[in-house]
Amino acid sequence: MGADRVFAYGAAAGLLGDLLLGDPRRGHPVAAFGRAAGAVERKLWRDHRGWGALHTAVCAGGAVALGAVAARSVRNSRAASAALTAAATWAVVGGTSLAREARAIGRALEAGDVEAARARLPHLCGRDPQALDADGIARAVVESVAENTSDAVVGALVWGAVGGVPGLVGFRAVNTLDAMVGHKSPRYRRYGWASARLDDVAGWPGARLTAVLAAAAGPDPRGAVRAWRADAAKHPSPNAGPVEASFAGALGVRLGGTLSYGGRVEHRPVLNGAGRAVQVQDIQRAARLSRRVSWLALGVCTVARMLKKGRTS
Predict the structure, then answer these.
(1) For 20-69, how does the pLDDT look when each residue is reduced to its tens digit (9 = 90+)?
(2) Complete DSSP assignment for 131-144
(3) What are phi and psi of 264, to 5 degrees?
(4) Beta-carbon count within 10 A of 211 CB
């Protein structure tokens, strides 16, 4: 069993494990990494880009090194290598938890319980829930499902295809650091700069693949491509823009507009302005599209790894 098959079998098993089990409530490896990164931050924090870059290098580099050591320790056993790939994939992807949280909010909105939906929203994204009505919550959920399909699934698979287990854990480490320190609050505007920029670079290929697959798997491929081409560049995030625009066009809805983070109001450009306003049932449609994109991404990444191996053999 070659390295390409190790990745194919391991990543498929890991995605299946995520589908069946989701994320553990306690002892999640990503949570353990977050605690370790927080401890490093407490030692290193200065209001300075250089210290933030050191924090990023220590934490992301440490995760990649740990993945490399683990992969090297089982390199003589294809079965053990596949099992390690499966475990790493399950640990770093979060598609099932993403869909579960989105659907829970959707059920609360369908029941007319806006307060319950507001209470659940922070599990999914960083918006200020009290600033949102039912329609605003539904829109926030669809946007979060779109963006996190790339961040929580497709991006990891892309880097797993490129770098195996070190690529899987390295991508999740970078993405987690961005979530922890990569925002533009007074504390992290400079310290988190390196994490944010590295996340932009690491997320670039996965975001474009997610956008392509959303167009291919969604109910309106032409609408997805049209919205991507017209509106993606308007988004302040170079990676969220293509993904959210493609999802918006594929689903025929309008995303973007005014939102609030940590008491700070932002006026985002509208994506797919010809679409209709997001409705509660679109949460379920977005979750289904996210699942299709995730499995298609596995297929694309597996084929790409096989082709790469064929060119180098």
Answers:
(1) 988 877 778 999 999 999 999 999 999 999 999 999 999 999 999 999 99
(2) G--HHHHHHHHHHH
(3) -100, 120
(4) 30
